């Protein structure tokens, strides 16, 4: 029981830190801003800010930060919702198979 509580607390701490990383690197930079302006500025993205292009840009920002902050942790999947019924998904397998 004690082990489960410790593990659960670590998971909660990790989730809070992960949320702060996503907020700092992504949300604060794109939410309520003109994507045509902020995507090149913060993510060095060229072209239209489509869901697919943004997923790739966000992947590289988050994957690097997560691996730097958490030894052995890896971003496995990223999902970006466009509407309530439409989203794009990028997985680690898709990213590294494409290289």
Shape: globular
Biggest sheet, spatial arrangement of strands: 1-2
Question: What oligomeric assembly is this protein in?
Answer: single chain
N-C termini distance:
44 Å
Task: Count every helix, treating DSSP H or I runs of 4 or more residues as helices.
Answer: 4
Which structural class fits the helix and strand makeup? mainly alpha
Indicate the radius of gyration in whole angstroms: 15 Å
**How would a textbook summarize the main sheet?**
2 strands, antiparallel
**Overall average pLDDT:** 87
What's the helix-strand series?
HHHEEH
| Extended strand count | 2
What does this structure look like?
This protein has a two-stranded antiparallel sheet with strand order 1-2. It has one domain. The chain has helices at residues 2-30, 35-43, 51-69, 92-97; strands at 77-81, 87-91. The chain starts with a helix and ends with a helix. The radius of gyration is 15 Å and the shape is globular. 64% of the residues lie in helices and 10% in strands. With 99 residues, the protein is mainly alpha-helical. It has four helices and two strands. Helix 1 packs across helix 3 (51-69).
